[in-house]
Amino acid sequence: MNASSLDRASPALRQLVDGIDELLVLLAPDGRVLDANLAGRGLIGDDSTGRAFATPSWLPATEDREAVAAAIAGVSIAGAPARVHVRPVRGGERLDMELRFSPVESDDGPAVAVSGHDVTAERRAERAYDRSERMLAGIVRSVPDAIVTVDAQQVIRMANPGAEAAFGYTADEMIGQPLALLLPEAVRERHAAHVRDFGGGGEDARFMNQRVPVAGRRRDGRVFPAEVTIARTPVGDEVLYTAVLRDISDRWKTQRELAEARQHEEAILRSVADGVIGIDRHGRTTFANPAAARLLGYRVHELIGHDLHALAHHSRPDGSAYAAEQCPTWRATHQGIALGGDDVYWRADGTALPVEYTATPFHVDGQVEGAVIVFRDGSARKRAEAELLQLSLVDELTGLYNRRGFMLHANRALERAAEDGHVIVLAFFDMDRFKAINDAHGHLAGDQALREVATLLRRTLRRDDVLGRFGGDEFVALLARPPGEDFDGQLQARIEAQLAHRNAAPDTPFALAMSIGTVQRAPGDQRSIESLLADADAELYRAKRGRRPA
């Protein structure tokens, strides 16, 4: 580029510079564009003159702009040429470009000349080659088969980890050694002849095991049968031979044991109590043991070939449709994810079967080809869990809810009352002189007194009222009624009548008495159950202090 402004250049020179494909730009020392050829304006913009050279409009990466600014500063201050690789954008396409910065003298003083060479194609080719090399190296490292490369003199040039595992040598111990190191002595000469014959022929690859038996020799001297594929590859002025070897010493043993293993597996599947079903990747049943057929109410042959989801997993526990793609077995067969847990299967007669299950994908040649589902009847466990839950919520002595059970059901009752617009009454009961009963008549009598109070409260309250023993000699009840009903006063009157009737009975060893504290929550009142309990407890002790037992 002429060091003077191109605007003052001759038309012929201007046309020559604009005809150059590379970017040519003249910059002021502060980085402003003084002039640019056609290629330069096509990249940085037709209106770039007088503006900063490195702008986000064509150089979006901050690190690129910083590198360009540093290069301009180095040229302007120290006069040192610089080269920077950047990735500009032109027409929405990301490019690779090498920018060269050089000091020049213009008619207006010192300036910086910038030339840019588009290396996009070269960089793409380099990256593609690098990816290819890394991929090939990764494949060679990861392949479990032994891969060995030898030259025309049958000297080992490369050995992968699979070869290390097969022969028992490290790669460093094999490289540079004759191939005979890995062959049984009896076949070395014959093998060398076959390789020479192969090298002189017109083939590029051969399955060696189709021609002659192939055997390998491990470091410890053991000989093993193998399948080998060998390929001839010219590299520069020499020819290399790459052998891919697979140890097949276990094949005969495997084949002999396969029938026995299948019989053993079938015997196990027939004898286990759990249901075992195999499905292919389309969800069709490929095998089922007798237990699976019995649990689902089918014969084994009625399951084979049918879509298991449509047959036994079509609906959720509430009866709503269960889409196949939401089914755990679908995830096992399509995503290769092992799953397990509780679910519901449907028997042939339409009844639900709670199950505990696992769905485990199985692979063939690295691809998910189906899943094995193992399930058992979960009905007994569900019943036991329900019974345990009930036991955890019920007071063993009185049969009423314990504190935990009361709080659970009371909170639900509060929610329903808020929806229905009902008034809530929370009543706190405390037995008077309970300690005196224990002291005078013993703890068995005390237990009897507690049971009698529980029975009395049950008779007094409605079935849908929430009643519990809160601990010791304290009881609590939550009642929900429509507004306008004076059931607070009616409650106390009924309890007093029940107590009077009981205490008047002949041969009663001790009298029962209770103090009561009650609070109400009107519709719209947002007090929690804990707040209501605290208020009722305070009312209870006011009643006790006032000596107004029921």
TrEMBL record:
Instruction: Quote the CDD domains the UniProt record gives.
Output: GGDEF, PAS
Domain PAS residue range list? 132-185, 261-318
PROSITE patterns recorded: GGDEF (PS50887), PAC (PS50113), PAS (PS50112)
Ranges for domain GGDEF come to 422-550
Q: Domain of life here?
A: Bacteria
- SUPFAM superfamilies recorded: Nucleotide cyclase, PYP-like sensor domain (PAS domain)
Q: Which residues form the PAC domain?
A: 210-260
Per its UniProt record, what InterPro entries does this chain match? Biofilm_reg_signaling (IPR052155), GGDEF_dom (IPR000160), Nucleotide_cyclase (IPR029787), PAC (IPR001610), PAS (IPR000014), PAS-assoc_C (IPR000700), PAS-like_dom_sf (IPR035965), PAS_4 (IPR013656)
Q: What is this protein called?
A: PAS domain S-box-containing protein/diguanylate cyclase (GGDEF) domain-containing protein
Q: Which organism is it from?
A: Cognatilysobacter xinjiangensis
